[in-house]
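quick one before i forget lol
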Amino acid sequence: MTPNYALSFNTAAPQYAANRPSYPPTVLDTIEQTAARPLKGARIADVGAGTGIATALLRARGADVIAVEPGDGMASQFRRSLPDTPVVRGDGDALPLATASVDFLTYAQSWHWTNPARSLPEAMRVLRPSGALALWWNNPALDVPWQAEQNRRVEEFIGGDVAEKRGSGRRARTEDVFARAPYLPACTRHEIRWSRTVPLDTHLSNISSHSVFLVLREEEKAAFLTEERAHVLKTFPGGQVEESYEVILIVAPAA
């Protein structure tokens, strides 16, 4: 039976909330600059909101945010983290939102779980004429040698490319999808570099919170993480790990 990678997060929502990286302020700055309007006071739907990592940042900018999340476990964790923010059940392929009802539609680390043939027209439906769609992902910076080596070990362990293994290779083709939509104005692509320093346990828990690990048996996962701990300690013997990321951000104005 093929694992359901998308639903795997429901059993690990607290782990996800505690260990996944957030996003640097430059991401939201770039969205504002590209859309030529502030997030403060804007009506925003954060789709695939998960545990609320991006939602919290949008709220801190003064946005009026509603979250859309399909998973039971993730939605429950979201409510614990952000009890004053509304969250509705649904996904990007059939948004539970009125036509022309939001100024921004955001997908942080979640667009690749949609079917773009459905989610892109849906995005354009719910956006107001002056609105914008913003998609972004945290990617490990693979020009950092130790991270490239770790990525190689992960792919050897799971038996293939991470994105293809979980069925989310659409991410690599996102720009092609936008280019093939004749009704959509040109999107812009941005690369934003940042880093965080975390304890080794947090680093390993972040790795194991990804869907390709969540679908594995506990003993398999534990064996890999024990070996990975030893590898990472060679680079960071003090146990504080500097993770480097490159955020890929795509912003598209409403059609």
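fyi The mean pLDDT is 89.
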